[in-house]
Structures are given as structure tokens and as C-alpha cells.
Write a structure and sequence with these properties.
Layout: H1 2-7, H2 10-30, H3 35-51, H4 63-83, H5 100-119, H6 122-133, H7 138-145, H8 149-167
Helix pairs in contact: 2-3, 2-4, 3-4, 5-8, 6-8
């Protein structure tokens, strides 16, 4: 590793590659990567080892630990990338118009919720409005009102229970 870091020694890197590439690939496959993904990842890992060899510090880790850490981090990056939708998978164009029946049901539900909110005691309704319509945390509401945090939480919990009862 030191010959690669110090002199960019290609023969030393070839020996590192020959030793570690199959082991890193097996590690990646055991961690759930497909063989093709593992192969691509190994290429990236070993290219990173070549580019960043000067950053290797033998006092902090062994060569194997350093290379397998790079592999692990690269695998995590690939998993994160795979969970994000690609641009072609994103919906394009306007949202479809909602069904008239769905619109009517939503309007009726909104009216029922408004009626249920109006039935709440003023102190509970004000807290619900701050928490859900004002998008404030319980701590922010407590700071704004001067009420204890436990009181805020209790009143909101009671108000939500009453709303559930009115909505069913």
C-alpha cells in the first residue's frame, strides 16, 4: 500500500487489486448486492483506493480495514441512490382531475371537521389550530402561551379524542 501511496506503483496496485477485489466482491454480495452491482462497486472501490492511496494512514487502520470501509460506504451510497426515483420515473404533467364524487366527499369531510372543531372548548381549539394549522411544535406553543408543556400535550390529546368521536 505504501508503494502505491508514495510512488503510484502500478505493480503494487495490481497486487492489491488481485488480493482485495475478490474479497470485496464477496463481502458486497454477502451484504445483499447483486453480482453485477458488486462488480461495479469493486471497480469503484479499487479506483478510489488508487486515487486516495496517499490518504491511507497505517496508524489508524489496516489496509484491509481501510479498503473494506471504502467498500461499505460505497455500498451505502449505491443503496441510497437506488431508493431515489430516477427523473424518468417522476410523474410529469398536471395531476389528474379528482373525481367529482371524491371532491364532494372531501368537501363534506371538511365541513364535518369544521363543525367538530367548533364544538371544542376554546382552549383546546386554539391549541389544535396552533399545532396543526400553525405548524407549531408543542414546545413552541408552550413558549407562546406560557402554559406548561404537559398542559399543552394533555389539551391537544383531549381535543384529538373529541374530534375522533365527532368524526365517527
Amino acid at each position: 500500500m505504501q508503494a502505491v501511496a508514495r510512488d503510484a506503483d502500478k505493480a503494487a496496485f495490481a497486487a492489491l487489486f488481485t488480493h482485495f477485489a475478490p474479497r470485496v466482491k464477496a463481502f458486497l454480495i454477502k451484504s445483499g448486492a447483486t453480482p453485477a452491482m458488486a462488480e461495479d462497486c469493486v471497480q469503484d472501490v479499487m479506483a478510489t483506493v488508487w486515487r486516495k492511496a496517499r490518504m491511507f494512514d497505517p496508524s489508524r487502520a489496516s489496509v484491509a480495514t481501510w479498503i473494506f470501509t471504502i467498500a461499505r460506504n460505497r455500498r451505502i451510497d449505491l443503496l441510497r441512490r437506488d431508493r431515489r426515483p430516477e427523473p424518468e420515473e417522476l410523474p410529469w404533467g398536471p395531476e389528474p382531475e379528482p373525481d367529482q364524487l371524491d371532491t364532494l366527499v372531501m368537501q363534506q369531510e371538511s365541513e364535518r371537521l369544521g363543525d367538530a372543531l367548533a364544538r371544542l372548548p376554546e382552549d383546546q381549539r386554539a391549541l389544535i389550530e396552533r399545532a396543526y394549522f400553525g405548524d407549531l411544535s408543542h414546545s413552541q406553543i408552550a413558549a407562546a402561551t406560557g402554559l406548561p408543556l404537559g398542559t399543552i400535550k394533555s389539551r391537544i390529546r383531549l381535543a384529538l379524542e373529541k374530534l375522533r368521536q365527532h368524526m365517527t
